[in-house]
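Lab notebook, bench 4. The sequencing result for the construct came back, and we need a structural model before the next group meeting so we can plan mutations. Quick request posted to the team channel:

Model the 3D structure of this chain.
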Amino acid sequence: FSKLSQLSSLISIITCSAMLAAIPDRAVANSRSDSNYQNSCWNIQVNRSTLSARCRRINGGSTRTSIPIRGIENRNGNLTYFSNSKSASNYSDSCWNAQVSGATLSARCYRINGGSTRTSIPIRGIENRNGVLTYFW
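Done. Here's the predicted structure in token form:
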């Protein structure tokens, strides 16, 4: 009975390893690249494709800082990431009323048929580094 139990455990471990190996690297990278600036910044705003906020510094003070949002486009009324998320965003060419809540960007974006949709997307890769918004990837 003990050897059967060990064999069953080994099969479970191999199955779990195979399942983890099947997860695309991009999915793992995306889960690690969520922004965290919203934990130490406030008065967060977006103007076209520039994110600005007041962010805490190590010494307890704060500074007003801004950074271009990278890699986001409007694809038929949906905010999505380019394949190269380090490229300049162009969603503001066809989206309006952009707002940010925490680390989520939302906007109303044109669709191909001329209609529009309210859409949102998490902003990736931005952190507060001693009062300055920076990319960590």
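The helical segments are 2-22, 25-32.
Will bring this to the meeting.
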